[in-house]
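Morning, I've got a small favour to ask if you have a moment. Here's the protein in full, and shout if anything looks odd to you:
***
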Amino acid sequence: MDLNKATRQQLMTLPGIGEAEADKIIAGRPYFTKTQLRQKDIIPAAMFYDIVNKVDVNVEILPGPQPVKTPVSPKGQEKKEPKKDVFKDLMKSK
């Protein structure tokens, strides 16, 4: 049974899982590992060991933003703009 997708009723079919525990499991979603039931203090250790072999965790990985690729010029072909001589431009305006 998938901890991330099981309904409240499905969770309650697990040994020791009642309404309160099922609600806590649902509220703690998403889970990436089974052990997060203990790490997040969702259920007691004894209950965890009773259900650990009856549950699974499937995580859907959604596509994220793709990196922006900047064009790279081959070596030696970079366009270089000539540096402006600001002092020279100021002298021309006078």
Notes: The CA atoms of residues 87 and 93 lie 10 Å apart. Residues 8-51 form one domain. The radius of gyration is 30 Å.
